[in-house]
Please model this.
Amino acid sequence: MTHLLRALLLIVLTAVTFFLISALGYVLMTSAVILILTTSYAIKYRISGAGVGFAYFGLAYIGFGLMLLGIGLVQTHAGCMFLIGDCYQPTLPPWMFEIKAGANLYLTIVNALALTSAYLNTREISRLLNEKSRI
Model:
């Protein structure tokens, strides 16, 4: 039952993240998610010791940054005025739209996973604090 609830939470947070990215933009939404994630892992690691969970999200966001850099380089080479925005140059490869859509989906899923992880960290923090108060 708990796996079903976690999967449902991930689906709901993915939809919320998608709509918030549409409303607030990539930078503001991702910055807020990284702040929430960093806070949850900092508190969790202070209570239970260091781990590697936060590093995986760092690698995922670095991967997104490299993908964004690659998109910008291809669009600049094609003669587009903007690095990331829409480009209607005839020299732009036709598969570039799918790459941009994939980057958007990648960031949405990583943000939803980060929010899910922050929620699970919060539950674990409250469990650890309850165990320490009983002792």
Notes: The chain has one domain: 2-134. The two ends are 30 Å apart (CA to CA). The CA atoms of residues 66 and 72 lie 10 Å apart.
